[in-house]
Amino acid sequence: xxxxxxxxxxxxxxxxxxxxxxxxxxxxxxxxxxxxxxxxxxxxxxxxxxxxxxxxxxxxxxxxxxxxxxxxxxxxxxxxxxxxxxxxxxxxxxxxxxxxxxxxxxxxxxxxxxxxxxxxxxxxxxxxxxxxxxxxxxxxxxxxxxxxxxxxxxxxxxxxxxxxxxxx
Length: 168
Description:
This protein has eight helices and no strands. By secondary structure, it is an all-alpha fold. The two termini are 25 Å apart. The protein has one domain.
């Protein structure tokens, strides 16, 4: 594989799509481990989607020769302060998307943050409390439809950014 920075973006998007396909298959399964498999593949979609966003930011930074290639956190890069220090339409647009609670990027970042949040454990686990807690967690999670929309939007964003960065 070439040592170009865009290959990381392509690779992450490709792996995210594969994980999404596996997630959809696991979500439709009825066997005993289907819920665990679905959660496993959901985490993979999140991981690779997050990596793709970070790699896209690195692509933009490399194009403008900004010293941002060492950053390892999307949240660290998508803030107003950084967008002001490194003015560029791509970074500014991604920062706005990250701050818009209804956007695909904000949803992905929220799901990423929830992935590392400690699990809520009830003080006295009763059978009904456990069922309610599990149901509540599943209803607020990043779902397959949101993941599909996020990956489609991210792929479109990558194509649009690359088209704008080409020299004719």
